[in-house]
Amino acid sequence: MAREGLPIVVPPETTDQPTENNSRSLFKRIRPRRSFLKGLGVVGAALSVEPLLNIHAEAKGHPHFLPIGDVAILRFLAAAEILETDLWQQYNELAGIQDSEVPGGSGNEAYAEAVEQLDEDMNQYIHDNTEDELTHEQFINAYLVSKRAEPVDLDRFRTLPSSKASGAQQIGRLTNLMQLTVDTTWYTRYRSRTQNPDFGDALPQAIPTLAVGQHPAIPRTDDDVQSGDFLQAIANTAGFHFATIEQGGTSLYPQLAQRASHPEVLRILLAIGGTEIMHFQTWSDKAGNAPPVSATDPVTGVSVTFPDLNSPPLGGEDFQTNLIMPEPTIFLNKKFPACSVIRPTKTRGAAKAALNFLTADGLFIGQSKEFFKFMHTLAVEADLAVRES
């Protein structure tokens, strides 16, 4: 997955390489690409499931074997981490620490100062979150390669423009941070003691005006840093978007872990998923520090208001800004006592729901039909995974 500054690290050959000459072709035959989908009737071409299952059974004793569903799960997560790295790198180029750990960019002083109104250590947190996502994508792809499975490469979709503001690299991007529609229901969801989306509950937006229209979370040009209120609104949008993105990963990993079969794959999902939870708690805390401000985008005319979440008509436990740990809520069955949990964690359709969420966020505005088709295929494959006995 070669690209400037973000190489993929592939582990050296291990000593437990297969001795069978046809092992590489065998594992190419079982990887969950078109044959898997066709066999399950997803893309329409007729292909019997029986030969696929025979190949699958033949490979089970192989030292590099991974169940088809596990490979599909890892491939979707690799793609998700590549997308996260792309968006976090854009934030880091403008408001994070500039060093060799997260290459690219030169910083934008005005934007960085506005972001630091949420916390003086934001540059360090942004940097570290960016590095974490980079290591996640590199590790998962390297693990897939070690198992003779196909890694994920999204380089051909790096076609979206960069910010033209000072400090940003002028390279192709996968994600768009300049036209976001930010879902902030995570804020009230994690404070509610009576509702859980696993039960079909819909929670209110913390910042309703962010959930409509298209808002920049990074300056589009240097013109955007000239107005104090509008620049702070951009920074506040970023602060809430940080948590919006990371709460998605917080749920996605435990959702897909319930479908994993191989103990090592389960270990990977639990270990990486735990860091996503750390990210989310950090950003859920910082979002509450966003200074109250109202501003209108001078380019699009779209307005946004960031209220004081602790004051009427808001306030109370559903909006209290220092509640950064999940409040107890209903879980599994309403007959059980309330429990502090990640939510949602229902696994059915989890990958497709994650893709739909990112799409609704506006991250992919401007992307090609080929990109959406590729990501849809990865999501369908991951959601078809079932735990094997």
Structure description:
The chain is an all-alpha fold and 389 residues long. It is built from eleven helices and two strands. A hairpin with a 6-residue loop joins strand 1 and strand 2. Helix 5 crosses helix 8 and helix 10 (350-360) packs antiparallel against helix 11 (369-383). It is globular, with a radius of gyration of 22 Å. It starts with 22 loop residues before the first helix and ends in a 6-residue tail after the last helix.
Summarize the structure.
The protein has helices spanning 23-30, 34-39, 49-59, 68-95, 109-115, 122-146, 185-189, 228-257, 263-287, 350-360, 369-383; strands at 293-296, 303-306.
Strand order of the largest sheet: 1-2
Question: Main sheet?
Answer: 2 strands, antiparallel
Helix-strand sequence: HHHHHHHHHEEHH
Quickly give the structural class: mainly alpha
Please estimate the helix content.
40-55%
Total number of β-strand segments?
2
Calculate Rg over CA atoms: 22 Å
Basic shape: globular
Q: Give average pLDDT, whole number.
A: 87
Residue stretches low in confidence (pLDDT < 50, at least 5 long) are 1-58
Bin the strand percentage: under 5%
Helix tally? 11
How many domains? 1
End-to-end separation in angstroms reads: 33 Å
What topology does this entry show?
Elements: H1 23-30, H2 34-39, H3 49-59, H4 68-95, H5 109-115, H6 122-146, H7 185-189, H8 228-257, H9 263-287, E1 293-296, E2 303-306, H10 350-360, H11 369-383
Antiparallel strand pairs: 1-2
Helix pairs in contact: 1-3, 4-6, 4-8, 4-11, 5-8, 6-9, 8-9, 8-10, 10-11
